[in-house]
Amino acid sequence: MAAPALVALAHGSRDPRSAATIKSLIGEVRRLRPDLRIEQAFLELAKPGFQQTVDKLVKAGFDEIVVVPLLLTEAYHAKVDVPAAVEAAMGRHPGLKVRSTGVLGLETAFLDVLDIRMREALRAARVRELDALVLAAAGSSDALANQSVARLARTWGSRHKLPVTAAFASATPPTTGEAVRAFRAQGKRHIAVASLFLAPGFLPDRAAELAVEAGAVAVSDPLGAHPEVARTILARYAVGAVELVPV
After folding, report:
1. What pLDDT score was predicted for residue 1?
2. Which are the contacts of 189, defined by CB distance < 8 A and separation ≥ 6?
3. CA dist 164 → 44, 58, 159, 191, 229 (Å)
4. DSSP states of 58-98 as a string?
5. Which of 179, 151, 154 is nearest to 167 (CA)?
6. In this predicted structure, what is the pLDDT of residue 244?
7. Is the dihedral of CA 85, 87, 92, 98 positive or negative?
8. Which residues neighbour 87 within 8 Å (Cβ) at sequence distance 6 or greater?
9. What are the residues whose beta carbons fall under 8 Å from the beta carbon of 13, sequence distance 6 or more?
10. Are 167 and 204 spatial neighbours (Cβ–Cβ below 8 Å)?
11. pLDDT value, residue 247
12. 166 phi and psi angles, rounded to 5 deg
């Protein structure tokens, strides 16, 4: 019996860099598990769409699919959009079993990836000294999602023994610019911003722009196609595949 197919479901963006990054990330997942059928799909704004991808897998003979939402927090898209897409797919294909896993989330292991991206940014900016950090994320109207980012920021700050503030690109304050200016008001002058985004796009660009305008000395790239992110996708898939097994 074939293993369930894996669909890595990203939100999607009009920015072509986003889809290219997701494609590279899925390439990493395939490299780790060449035995699995692995597809990428998007909720909106990019192709292939989720329903199109499901149709392709059904046509190829798959009757079990595990969907791993490529989202960093349990916010609206995870709670509403993904379940609706899964329900629609099963409604269109009687007998098809689709299991959506938990989101990628904010794994502590992702702090290692943040550190790598930050070192790259500091090296490019020729910065050798830091006295504060800002962790920039998308932001949500869901308070719990924002709190999860703030918790990760505290953990990251403890790791580096530096003050860290969480900042958000939308929906809730502070913005990256506000966070950087608040540190500067405290006398901090060497403030770097880490991009807690999966891929490039409008929100990471806006967060970076506001941070630099406020005086940040460096802004890192998003997490991107790192093997640690790929391993997390496979860990989520493994749980979902087990949940499909009849008891």
Report:
1. 59
2. 131, 215
3. 33, 47, 10, 10, 23
4. HHTT--EEEEEE--SS-SHIIIIIHHHHHHHHHHHSTT-EE
5. 179
6. 87
7. positive
8. none
9. 19, 45, 46, 199, 201, 202
10. no
11. 63
12. -80, 140
Structure-token match 């989202």, residue found: 71
E strand map for the chain: 5-10, 38-42, 64-69, 97-100, 132-137, 164-168, 191-195, 218-219
**How many Å apart are CA 66 and CA 85, to the nearest integer?**
13
Q: What is the pLDDT of residue 75?
A: 77
Q: How far apart are CA 32 and CA 231, in angstroms?
A: 8
Helix (H, G, I), strand (E, B) or coil at 137: strand
Residue 168's SS3 state is: strand
In 3D, which of 17, 26, 55 has the Cα closest to residue 226?
26
Report the pLDDT value the prediction gives residue 53, as an integer from 0 to 100: 97
pLDDT at 68: 98
HEC states along 37-63? CEEEEECCCCCCEHHHHHHHHHHCCCC
3 state SS of 188: coil
| pLDDT per 10-residue tile (average), the chain, 247 residues | 92 94 97 97 94 97 97 86 94 95 92 97 95 96 92 95 96 94 97 97 96 97 96 97 83
